Every structure is written in structure tokens, then in C-alpha cells.
């Protein structure tokens, strides 16, 4: 396993890459492309916001940027669920990415709680 300093940056970048591959494989119809652009924006923003959080100058800035990560993960989950529910992509193919979305959400929630509790 990677050390703590490289684990989340790499994991959030891998998440973005998985989202990019998903969107790249979508059919070119209007619905898929519109929804794809939405999840592409939110899914790739997670890692960028985490990178900013990791360079925060204060605890408050860290918590705010981690909150941005959570917002983007929540939005990504919403779009992925729509893909699944509308069967744009078979639910079984989306399950691993949805699982990763939930796991990252839990990690960021925990990090925010820890940061807020430290005095």
C-alpha cells in the first residue's frame, strides 16, 4: 500500500481517469453526451480540489476545499446513478465506479471530521 502522502492524490487521479474513460466510451447521442459532460466535470474536479486541499494554508481552507471534494463526489454519484437507472450504462458496469465514489466520500467525510476536531 502507498504511504499516506501519495495514496489519496493517486487515488483521486485514478478516479478522474476512470471517469474520463467512461465518458469517452459513451455513445454520441445527445442525452449521453450531455450527461457525460456533467459527470466529466464533477468527476475530474475531485482530484483537483483534493490537490488544493493538500496545499491549504490553514485548517479552515483545508476543510473548505475538502468540502468542495465532497460536493463534486456527490454530484458525480448523482450522474452515475442516472446513467445506471436509465440504463445508459449497464448497472453492473457502473457498480465499481459508484463504489469508489462512496468510498472516497467516506474518506473525505472522515478527514473533515478529524480536521474540525483538532484544536
Describe this structure in words.
This protein has 119 residues and is an all-alpha fold. The chain has a single domain (4-117), classed as 23S rRNA-intervening sequence (de novo design (two linked rop proteins)). The chain is built from 4 helices and no strands. It has helices spanning 4-24, 30-54, 59-85, 91-117. Helix 1 (4-24) runs antiparallel to helix 2, helix 1 runs antiparallel to helix 4 and helix 2 packs antiparallel against helix 3. The longest helix has 27 residues, at 59-85. It starts with a helix and ends with a helix. The mean pLDDT is 93.
Helix/strand layout:
Blueprint: H1 4-24, H2 30-54, H3 59-85, H4 91-117
Helix pairs in contact: 1-2, 1-4, 2-3, 3-4
Strand segment tally: 0
Let me know the largest β-sheet.
none
Query: According to CATH, what is the class?
Result: Mainly Alpha
- Mean pLDDT reading: 93
Give me the CATH fold name.
Answer: de novo design (two linked rop proteins)
The string of secondary-structure elements, in order, is HHHH
Assess the beta-strand content as a share of residues. Answer: under 5%
- SS element count, helices: 4
Computed CA radius of gyration, to the nearest angstrom: 15 Å
Spans of at least 5 consecutive residues whose pLDDT stays below 50 are none
Distance between the termini: 30 Å
Structural class: mainly alpha
State the CATH architecture: Up-down Bundle
* Integer tally of domains: 1
What level of helicity do the residues show? over 70%
Per the principal axes of the C-alpha atoms, what is the gross shape? elongated
CATH homologous superfamily title? 23S rRNA-intervening sequence
Amino acid at each position: 500500500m502507498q504511504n499516506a502522502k501519495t495514496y489519496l492524490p493517486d487515488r483521486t487521479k485514478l478516479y478522474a481517469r476512470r471517469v474520463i474513460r467512461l465518458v469517452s466510451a459513451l455513445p454520441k447521442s445527445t442525452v449521453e453526451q450531455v450527461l457525460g459532460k456533467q459527470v466529466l466535470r464533477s468527476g475530474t474536479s475531485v482530484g483537483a480540489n483534493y490537490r488544493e486541499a493538500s496545499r491549504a494554508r490553514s485548517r479552515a481552507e483545508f476543510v473548505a476545499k475538502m468540502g468542495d471534494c465532497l460536493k463534486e463526489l456527490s454530484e458525480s454519484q448523482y450522474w452515475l446513478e442516472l446513467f445506471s437507472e436509465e440504463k445508459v450504462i449497464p448497472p453492473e458496469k457502473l457498480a465499481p465506479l459508484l463504489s469508489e465514489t462512496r468510498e472516497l466520500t467516506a474518506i473525505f467525510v472522515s478527514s473533515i471530521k478529524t480536521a474540525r476536531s483538532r484544536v
